[in-house]
Amino acid sequence: MKHLVIVTCGLLSFACAGPSRFARAGFEVHTFTHESTNAHLVVGEGGAVLFDTGYLRNVEQLEADLKAAGVDGGKLKAVVVSHGHADHAGAAATLHERWKVPVIVGEGDQGMYTSGKNEPLCPTGFIGNLRKSGDESATYTGATPDTLVADTLDLKPLTGLDATVTRVPGHTMGSLIITIGDVALVGDLFRGGIVGSGAETHFYQCDVEQNRRDVRRVLKDLAPKATLFFVGHFGPVAREAVEAHFRE
Ligand SMILES: [Zn+2]
Predict the structure, then answer these.
(1) Cβ(211)–Cβ(196) under 8 Å?
(2) How far is CA 22 from CA 7, 142, 164, 183, in A?
(3) Measured in angstroms, how far is the CA atom of residue 117 from the centroid of ligand 1?
(4) Of 30, 76, 97, 111, whose Cβ has the fewest other Cβ atoms within 10 Å?
(5) Are 187 and 202 a contacting pair, CB within 8 Å?
(6) From CA 10, how far away is CA 143, in angstroms rounded?
């Protein structure tokens, strides 16, 4: 995968570019990418929430990204972990310690989050098969989550943002998405294209057909107003591209 990443970075500067920033009505989304994994910072007037952290080994870079975005320990109100895999949840416990922020995890993923160990992965294609052993064995410093989300959580009281966390089991039992305004942040529900701006089935899904139904449910019921989807890898992806890949 190392070679693939290098080739990808060489061909497509955006895949390895510095932080990107999307201004929306009343909030901004900053995306920090390290080792092809995205951490998304949603910033509003009253506070900010970080959705995913990347690997633990990149925590210093992430902290520098947060500070460069103007966010300090007072402004960052919560870390939401899209799911318990090491490339998403890896630095959450460390940020909890250093930045004194609560960590929010979906019910069903507390086992991974507490142990810092991934559950078995189900590859959906060539890249997943190639990466499975390395991805599966990645670990991180585990901890007890501050909040477990069984269904939904309103982020307004904690962060000041008109954002909702919703649990969408599939990629893992405790996978979470965030919806805010015309944006949805969806973790590994699907991924962006390595080349181009399309939506793709993620490298790991144990039930691909159920995943397709889940994506359609998100489009129709959970994020009907979302025009832009921020994903865990590559992206972001426009609504039309998601509809095109996951149509019935
Ligand atoms: Zn994952």
Answers:
(1) no
(2) 26, 31, 19, 10
(3) 12
(4) 97
(5) no
(6) 37
Domain that holds residue 231: 17-245
Report the run of H or E that residue 206 belongs to, with start and end: none
Q: Tell me how far apart the alpha carbons of residues 106 and 146 are, in angstroms, rounded to a whole number.
A: 11
* Interval between CA 45 and ligand 1 midpoint (Å): 30
Token pair of 13, please? 């500067």
What is the CA(17)–ligand 1 centre distance, in A?
22
Q: Are strands 48-51 and 37-43 parallel, antiparallel or unpaired?
A: antiparallel
Q: In what order do the strands lie in the sheet with 228-230?
A: 152-154, 163-167, 176-180, 183-185, 228-230, 237-238
Q: Per-residue pLDDT for 213 more than 50?
A: yes
What is the per-residue pLDDT across 28-84, written as a single tens digit (0 to 9) for each? 999 999 999 999 999 999 899 999 999 999 999 999 999 999 998 899 999 999 999
Q: Give the chain's domain count.
A: 1
Instruction: Decide if 189 is inside a domain.
Output: yes
User: How far is Cα 181 from Cα 203, in angstroms, rounded to an integer?
Assistant: 28
pLDDT digits (tens, 9 = 90+) for 163-186: 999 999 999 999 999 999 999 999
Using CA atoms in the order 11, 53, 46, 101, what is the torsion angle rounded to 10 degrees?
-170
Which residues sit with Cβ closer than 5 angstroms to ligand 1, an ion?
85, 188
The first and second tokens of residue 68, run together, are 């460069």
